[in-house]
Amino acid sequence: MLVSTIKNPDRVLHGDLMTSPSSQAGRHGMSCLASEHDPEGCRELKQMRVSFGDDIAGSQFQALIPSFIIISDRRLISGLSFIFDDGRSVDAGYVVAGHKDFATRHHSESIWVICSPAGFETITLGEYPQEIVDRHSESRIAMARLPCQGLKGIVLGLNAMQIVRIYFDRNEQDSLDNILWTLPYPVSAPSLCNDDVRALCELQRASFTPASTVCIEPAKGQLIAIKVHSPLGPGAGISGIQFVYGSGLTTGCGTADDTATLAFFLDEAEQLTQVTVYKIGSFVHHLKFSTSHKRASGLLPQLTVPNTEIECVEYTSTDNQSITGFCCCFIEATKQLHCFGAIGEAIAISSKSTSLPPVDIPDDIISNHGIHRSHLLLPKKYRSVRASVNPTDSKYRNRGQVTGLIFRLSNDTRHPDLLGQWTGFGEICYLEEDEQILDLEVTRRKPRCRVPRPWFLQIQGITIVTNLRRITWDFQRSYIFAATTFKWICLYFVIKDRLNHQKSRVRAHYH
After folding, report:
1. Mean pLDDT: which of 204-213, 383-392, 459-468, 484-493 is highest?
2. Please, what sign has the CA dihedral across residues 62, 64, 67, 73?
């Protein structure tokens, strides 16, 4: 029963009930509420407002004491007590009697807030709460640091037992200083355009949507590629991003599940100097990366929404510095990235409105499916070919399934050509000095279940034909797709042979 999960029932609700709760736009806030797309999680029943008054607001805090409630063996905050240096105290929310008797009192300039989708876990004054962070290291938590000065009052969103949302009333514009971040908490504030800062604050007022950072970590090895994960399709956006190291390790944010995996390769002397973000509102549609070697990736993902105005924001490193990481907000319920920015010592931000030209997709491709087109010039002199394989079973792909090929040139092994997707390293084949690739063959198989479009086939194997031999990467496992959960992620490969001016096209559909 619900009653059996609640301890310390001797609680008093403090604050003025807001009969017409508003969005509290303009106040900095953070929320543990579930998003509208999430059927589970915290819900708000009422809002209570507590004003500190002009005579108290100028004072300093001596203590901020939470009242806790035990819900399903988890200790969550139900109320807050603010004690000022003149001895007065103000209570807000469900406060337990007598809990202030043993409070530790000291002056501090910062309030640390730790919360999760279950509720607010800890609110404390003082230095970075490392011990508390370590205690919650296995949980999905987020953290914010707020200044104590200028706090005029507080508005709490409550359900029947606990605090689920907090608004801090102060004369201050939205800024990155007050943002809720997943761990690790950023050492310095990333660079993010003002529109995205405001959008991020609005997202965090509405639901539990902490921002994340992902940084290049030299200790994991040499950075060799940046992966972008996308479900493809017009306006599909980006669901995740990863740094890939020569050691095989990766770091990233977002999700790679059941998406196309696109890649931009770098060599050991190359640094990331610019990231271009194409977005509508805060929703990120495409990313483009540029390096210190004057190279740039194409749009990732490729498929644009034609005749649509889109904002182009460039984050450029200055003073001979480089971009060392990214920040973004990943909305888990919709698997979409918002509010994308850069991390570095010196970052310049510029913005303009533009429109992207439509991608040249053949007429026989159904327009409402995602397309990513890669191409390969067969007459090039390649040193090696490596299969890209899916490392684990996923909803739409099987473990060991071939998803693409990585070609390395004899005179430039640092910038490989990728045909298809790069989901993981497979077997590598080195070519002889006098060996030349002549053709590429793809074998396909029909799913065992009936699908609406019979020409959608799944890759079974890829064969490289050279003047000396045939090299085959084959997916041998048998599998069955359930018609009720079938979803298509399509890649369109274009293979050009400039020697005989012939063009052969191979459709490859990955799941």
Report:
1. 204-213
2. negative
Identify the structural domains of the chain with CATH numbers, from first to last.
3-172 (2.100.10), 214-355 (2.100.10.30), 373-510 (2.100.10)
Check if the beta carbon of residue 212 is closer than 8 Å to that of residue 329: yes
Phi, psi of 312 (to 5 degrees): -110, 115
Choose the weakest-confidence range: 7-11, 77-81, 191-195.
7-11
**CA distances from residue 429 to 96, 175, 200 in whole angstroms, order as listed:** 69, 52, 47
- Per-position DSSP letters for 162-175, written without gaps between them: SEEEEEEEES----
Q: What is the per-residue pLDDT across 377-417, written as a single tens digit (0 to 9) for each? A: 777 788 999 888 888 777 667 777 788 888 988 877 778 88
Q: Which residues, in sequence order, are CB contacts of 391 under 8 Å at separation 6+?
A: 399, 423, 424
* Cβ neighbourhood burial of 449 (10 Å; 0-12, 13-18, 19+): exposed
DSSP classification of residue 35: P
Nearest to 126 by CA among 62, 57, 177: 62
155-199 per-position pLDDT tens digit = 999 998 999 999 888 777 777 878 999 988 888 889 999 999 999
Q: 331, 35 in Cβ contact below 8 A?
A: yes
Phi, psi of 133 (to 5 degrees): -60, -45
Q: How far apart are CA 492 and CA 483, in angstroms?
A: 23
Angle 482-487-493 from CA coordinates, rounded to 5°? 125
DSSP per residue, 79-134: EEEEEETTS-EEEEEEEETTTTTT------SEEEEEEETTEEEEEEESS--HHHHH
Angstrom distances, CA of residue 266 to CA of 215, 290, 377, 404, 415: 16, 10, 20, 18, 6
Instruction: Enter the tokens of residue 212.
Output: 């994340």
pLDDT at 273 over 50: yes
Q: Where are the beta strands (DSSP E) in 220-371?
A: 223-230, 240-245, 250-254, 260-265, 272-280, 283-291, 309-317, 323-331, 336-344, 347-355
Q: Which two tokens stand for residue 177?
A: 């200083």
Secondary structure of 440-452 as H, E, C letters? EEEEEECCCCCCC
- DSSP SS3 for 390: coil
d(C-alpha 385, C-alpha 15), whole Å: 68
pLDDT of residue 507 exceeding 70, the answer is: no
Of 63-77, 256-270, 340-354, which range is least confident? Answer: 256-270
